[in-house]
Design brief:
CATH superfamily of the largest domain in chain B: P-loop containing nucleotide triphosphate hydrolases
Largest interface: A-B, 26 and 35 residues
Number of helices of chain B: 11
Radius of gyration of chain B: 24 Å
CATH architecture of the largest domain in chain B: 3-Layer(aba) Sandwich
Bound molecules: adenosine-5'-diphosphate, magnesium ion
Oligomer: heterodimer
Strand content of chain A: under 5%
Order of helices and strands of chain B: EEEHEHEHHHEHEHEEHEHEEHEH
Number of strands of chain B: 13
Number of domains of chain B: 2
Structural class of chain A: mainly alpha
Number of domains of chain A: 1
CATH topology of the largest domain in chain B: Rossmann fold
Helix content of chain A: over 70%
Number of helices of chain A: 12
Chain lengths: 267, 296
């Protein structure tokens, strides 16, 4: 097993993908942190009732620091998917399976090899959110709240959520294997389809408890703050449950891939 | 080196309505180069992929050293295989080998070694995306050699190689078999591997049409001879005496089923003055074509 993991780690480290996506993610997180910090402090914060919206300093800081995750999860997700799909796209899967014909082992090795990178994506996302968000908050005259335990809990949750999204990517990459299809499919689902489903579920109380288990909702639950929950449209699972549900999606997708695509003839 | 015996027994594979191969059986023996020959679409790649566990057969089985490939302990250390030349374009040649190395128990030094063996040392640190077909074939062979195997299974290894590359590949494969290794290689051109192989297995439309040594295949060639003479009258009489003989011109006679020696003897006995006597029988390539085109 360790040989298979070493092989997968080398595959990741010998192409530009991991750091190219990491760099793009860092830029995206920094951008969203700054935009949210400035928009929420300097923008028009008048509520519908004409009274100024009172945003608590800790809530403001939390929103700024976690803004990246609510959109930048697509980078670790794409990274996880591509480390599987690129083997099919470039047809290198035959070489891999010639050297290691035990296909379940190949999938497991890919999941395990992705973990250090998953944590790296999470750590970089949290670090960049603070590095860009805190000065922006300070500049706008708001409190950075870096002494607040709640902020640090949310940053830790960011690391966990980003890491879990990476494994969701690996799992779905295994099940679908079509590179563009799986990435576009996951983004369209989490950004467009799922919000609509959750919105609809909000009007039908019986569906609301089920909507909490959708992947996007689970991801938001991990961090605990989001547009949707802030807008009161949906109730979320507890953070730990959200993390388990998200990881569950990754593992179930990987298991489906093992029983389907990885069972197929490689010809 | 003691190469394993490669046995293919009754392999059949259907893809939906398409029967890619049907009841394919043959062996490739250690110490010999076996050429697996057939036109495009004959079923060569399907057979080799099934042998290597990438395609599951509809019926039949394939064994290497007595066991199916996926059941071997460290398969790539017994059998080096090269199928299509597919690599990640963004990886360098050396990095490509290093990604496979842990799985076959090869060190970094071994990667350098096989890259030198195939003559790619200069290009080792270049991205594969810029490689020519010939360079990819060499890198594919280097990958196959990484685990220091005693058998080689190569699908169309001469494709895209220049004449110098083909000569080099021939020398390499011959030496590998001379040291006791088993070599099974496919080609759609007999001429390309005629000087490389000891045994031939000919497949067409999914079925094995012929399996023998190359020498026995040569013996299947229908002989024929032709003769030129200035004496049109005696030549015409000789033509009448020999069954199947045709005069392609008043001075040129062609006779099927006779060797030049036999035709020369007939001419001598008939007092025909001979200016030229040539072998015009089937070439090996023509025998190959005839066998692939014959009805099953
Ligand atoms: N995955 C597949 N699905 C459907 N048909 C296939 C597949 N692979 C091969 N075939 C068919 O099987 C036959 C043999 O193909 P192949 O083994 O690639 O031949 P060769 O390598 O001798 O050119 C062809 O008719 C080909 O179209
Ligand atoms: Mg082929």
């Amino acid at each position: 097993m360790s040989a298979a993991i070493r092989s997968e780690l080398r595959k990741i480290l010998t192409t530009r993908l991991w750091w190219a996506l990491l760099a793009m993610m860092a830029v995206a997180v920094a951008f969203f942190a700054v935009v949210f910090a400035l928009a929420l402090t300097l923008g028009d914060t008048t509520g519908p009732d004409g009274q100024p919206l009172a945003i608590e300093p800790s809530h403001l800081a939390l929103t700024v620091y976690t803004a990246g995750v609510s959109l930048a999860y697509v980078f670790p997700l794409a990274f996880g998917a591509i480390i599987v799909t690129s083997e099919f796209r470039h047809r290198t899967i035959a070489t891999t399976l010639l050297a290691e014909p035990r296909r379940a082992r190949v999938i497991t090795a890919k999941l395990l090899a992705a973990i250090p990178f998953a944590l790296l994506y999470g750590l970089v996302a949290a670090a960049v959110a603070v590095a860009a968000g805190a000065p922006a908050l300070a500049l706008a005259g708001a409190e950075t709240m870096l002494g607040d335990a709640e902020v640090w809990r949310a940053l830790g949750a960011t690391v966990a959520a980003m890491a879990a999204w990476t494994l969701v990517g690996v799992g779905f990459g295994t099940a679908v294997t079509h590179q563009v299809g799986v990435i576009v499919g996951l983004i369209v689902w989490t950004q467009l389809v799922e919000p609509l489903v959750r919105l609809a579920a909000g009007f039908w109380s019986a569906a609301a408890p089920i909507a909490r288990f959708l992947p996007g909702a689970a991801g938001e639950a991990v961090v605990g703050t989001s547009f949707y929950s802030a807008s009161g449209l949906a109730t979320l699972l507890p953070a730990w449950a959200g993390l388990l549900v998200l990881l569950g999606y990754g593992l179930v997708a990987a298991a489906i891939g093992w029983r389907t695509t990885f069972r197929h003839d490689i010809s | 080196m003691d190469g394993p015996l490669i046995e293919i027994a009754g392999l059949t594979k259907t893809f939906g309505a398409v029967t890619a191969i049907q009841d394919v059986s043959f062996v490739a023996e250690p110490g010999r180069v076996t050429g697996f020959l057939g036109p495009n679409g004959a079923g060569k790649s399907t057979t080799l992929r099934t042998l290597l566990g990438l395609v599951s057969p509809t019926a039949g089985e394939a064994r290497i050293g007595g066991r199916p490939y996926p059941d071997l302990d460290r398969p790539a250390a017994l059998v080096g295989a090269q199928l299509e030349t597919a690599f990640h374009p963004g990886r360098t040649a050396l990095d490509h080998l290093r990604t496979v190395a842990p799985l076959v128990g090869a060190s970094d030094d071994r990667c350098d070694e096989v890259i030198a063996t195939v003559g790619l040392t200069e290009a080792a640190r270049r991205r594969v995306g810029g490689f020519s077909m010939g360079m990819r074939q060499r890198l594919g062979l280097a990958t196959a050699l990484l685990g220091d195997p005693s058998a080689l299974v190569l699908d169309e290894p001469a494709n895209g190689l220049d004449p110098a590359g083909i000569t080099w590949m021939r020398g390499f494969v011959r030496a590998f078999a001379a040291h006791g290794g088993t070599v099974l290689l496919s080609s759609h051109l007999l001429g390309e591997v005629e000087q490389t192989v000891d045994d031939v297995v000919i497949i067409a439309r999914g079925r094995v049409r012929h399996a023998s040594s190359l020498a026995e295949l040569r013996d299947l060639a229908h002989p024929a001879a032709s003769l030129a003479s200035p004496d049109a009258a005696r030549l015409a009489r000789l033509a009448d005496a020999l069954p199947g003989a045709t005069l392609t011109s008043p001075h040129d006679l062609t006779v099927p089923q006779l060797t030049p020696a036999e035709l020369g003897a007939h001419a001598f006995a008939a007092g025909v003055e001979v200016h030229r006597l040539t072998e015009t029988g089937e070439t090996l390539e023509q025998v190959f074509l005839r066998l692939t085109e014959e009805a099953a």
